[in-house]
Amino acid sequence: xxxxxxxxxxxxxxxxxxxxxxxxxxxxxxxxxxxxxxxxxxxxxxxxxxxxxxxxxxxxxxxxxxxxxxxxxxxxxxxxxxxxxxxxxxxxxxxxxxxxxxxxxxxxxxxxxxxxxxxx
Length: 120
Description:
By secondary structure, this protein is mostly helical.
């Protein structure tokens, strides 16, 4: 049985205060799903092959975005006015989560191959 057949839109508000809370909660689940896939793609590559790890992450993001258009638009699209400031919260959360995935890889790369300081 489909959930939509037993749950009315009004029933959602028994669990959420407003549309903003629904957007935040939904987006949080989407961000967790995507970042898990990005981490899995990175970890599936050789730990010392930084190019392969970066490319794998990019491919997963692209494939995910193409396969999940509505989720992609919720995270990165034009916000619905009715959601209020929830879109700002969603964007802030998304940026933090993506930075955590990307930042960890960039720090590993930096530790393995630090750039020389041309001013020294």
